[in-house]
């Protein structure tokens, strides 16, 4: 199971409340209706299957990861989740390679992007320079 699958999984009764209450589809997402509501920019991107680059910013717990999961689900894209704090160059290169080999759209959710070091940035450069 990966993060993309977890957006659709039904949580166990003993799971933490925040996990049990997490939205399972874009219609369930609370807040930012000017972006995710019917016929709004993020909703249109997801429904068209073309999710463009974006930066999600906010304090912990506001739903950035959940929104990324829901956008991937709604656009039928594969979601890759990396933490800039935990992932090394090897993991970043592996994700880039997997993304280039996939026939479907890949959304890269890069948590804590401001913590990328120079070598991590260099590992992502080929993907960014191609407009991926």
Walk me through what this model shows.
It is a single chain. With 132 residues, the chain is mostly helical. 43% of the residues lie in helices and 9% in strands. A two-stranded parallel sheet has the order 1-2. It is globular, with a radius of gyration of 15 Å. The two termini are 25 Å apart. Residues 54-126 form the ATPase AAA-type core domain. It comes from Vreelandella sulfidaeris. This is ATPase AAA-type core domain-containing protein.
Question: What's the helix and strand layout?
Answer:
Blueprint: H1 3-6, H2 17-20, H3 33-36, H4 41-48, H5 64-75, E1 78-83, H6 89-101, E2 106-111, H7 118-129
Parallel strand pairs: 1-2
The top level CATH class name: Alpha Beta
Strand order of the largest sheet: 1-2
Number of domains: 1
First-last Cα distance:
25 Å
- What's the CATH H-level homologous superfamily? P-loop containing nucleotide triphosphate hydrolases
Output the radius of gyration: 15 Å
The low-pLDDT segments are none
Structural class: mainly alpha
Outline type: globular
Q: Under CATH, the topology is which? A: Rossmann fold
Number of helices: 7
| Averaged pLDDT | 89
Main sheet overview: 2 strands, parallel
The percent range for strand residues is 5-15%
Give the SSE string. HHHHHEHEH
Helix content: 40-55%
Number of strands: 2
Known CATH architecture: 3-Layer(aba) Sandwich
Assembly context of the chains: single chain
